[in-house]
Amino acid sequence: GNMKYIDWLVQWLENYIRPSVKVRTYERYRLIIEQHIKDKIGGMELNDLSPLVLQSFITELLQSGNRKTGKGLSANSVNAVISVIQSSLKTAHLLGLAPEYTADKLKRPKLKEKPVECFTLVEQKRIEQAVLYGKKDKLYGIILCLYSGLRIGELMALQWSDIDFSKGILTVSKSCHDGKGGLIIDEPKTTNSH
User: Fold this and answer.
1) Which own/partner pairs from 95-101 qualify as long-range (CB within 8 Å, at least 24 positions apart)?
2) What contacts 38, CB < 8 A, 6 or more positions away?
């Protein structure tokens, strides 16, 4: 088995990923391969992608992987690259194209929680005043957001049945986003949202 990694990636993408994931995911994987993997380790043979080779590739991405700026890639982006590497090499191993699967030994970079930018109390009051005197009913959703911490998708998924006026309780059980053909309603994104 002396298949080049990039040749396998193309096969994997078309035959294993495309039929089984959302178009958005497929496109994201394709971009990751195109932008980050192809030129750096794509020309290597599957057998030569040792844990150390892969780890130093990851380290390089963290230090200077941003193609536009030459700075490091975010932990988030690097984790996405790692997912593509792990998934593609696992499949290669299952099919007998790679003698062993070692990509699970990759160290993932720690994600830093970004602090949330919040409005000051003064700004909140100004927003409230604008809504109260704006005479537009639909603007009241903004006040709801300020006081409840709803995500935009959760706000858009709200229905009258989610509000119990007698108890004064609002239940957040769904989220929604634009899909092909209108709005798609999902579970909320994080446990905190629940």
Assistant:
1) 96/1, 97/1, 97/3, 97/8, 97/46, 98/1, 98/46, 98/47, 98/49, 99/1, 99/47
2) 6, 9
On average, the pLDDT of the chain sits at 87
Is 86 in a helix, a strand, or coil? helix
Q: Report the predicted TM-score, pTM, of the whole model to 2 decimal places.
A: 0.60
Tokens of 92: 């290669």
Task: Using DSSP, state whether 182 is helix, strand or coil.
Answer: strand
- Dump pLDDT digits (tens) for 44-66: 999 999 999 999 999 999 999 98
Helix axes 121-134, 140-148, angle to 10 degrees: 150
pLDDT at 83 (0 to 100): 96
Q: Which two tokens stand for residue 73?
A: 């890639």
Alpha-carbon distance 33 to 10, whole Å?
9
Contacts of 151 (CB under 8 A, 6+ apart): 175, 188, 189, 193
For residue 194, the model assigns a pLDDT of 44
Q: For residues 88 and 82, what is the distance between their CA atoms, to the nearest angstrom?
A: 10
The angle formed by the CA atoms of residues 36, 38 and 39, to the nearest 5 degrees, is 85
DSSP three-state, residue 186: strand
